[in-house]
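In this supplementary section we document a worked example of the pipeline. Step one takes a protein sequence of length 196 as its only input; no multiple sequence alignment statistics are reported here. Step two produces a three-dimensional model, which step three serialises into structure tokens for compact storage. The input and output of this example are shown verbatim.
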Amino acid sequence: MDSAALPLERFIPDPEVTERFETTVRAPAHLVMEVAAHFDMQSLTFIKVIFWLREKLMRASPSGPRKPQGILEETKSLGWGLLAEQPGRLVVCGASCQPWLPNVKFSALAPGDFTAYAEPDQVKIAWTLETEEIGPATTGFAQETRAVATDEHARLKFRRYWRWARFGIIAIRLLMMPAVRREAERRWAAEKGNPG
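The serialised model returned by step three reads:
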């Protein structure tokens, strides 16, 4: 995909961090998006371990019991805001935060304010769920995350944090993408009456 056409260009055109992952799913785009938006990341044991490790390494306050919930529901409950949506095709979420803190607080920003937001000592982060129909019941599924600091002070702290945190964040995406693909393909096969 042409970088100018990427959904996050509108919100973070000059990121300090960009992570983009893509896969092909043998299921219709609307089903892939439904599965992705409602996918409970912590249903995967290794992802649960990554969150637990961050909590221990950062000496964060214990998060307590957690109810199973999809990625959109969970991130909104943590303070992320919805920046853009095209039903069945695209979701863009974003927030400002200080990710180097043990207990991160995410603050939603209005879509029209996101690009210009420049409160000091913050990092703006935005991420997507994207589907693109590439053939009959074949979908390109992508997830992208971008981040940019609002000033030099935040940039230095974010770079120190990102040196080690990126490994867990990338691992989460590398585990999530195939899990979404498997579940969407399983559900599509079941809908066609051909489970397997």
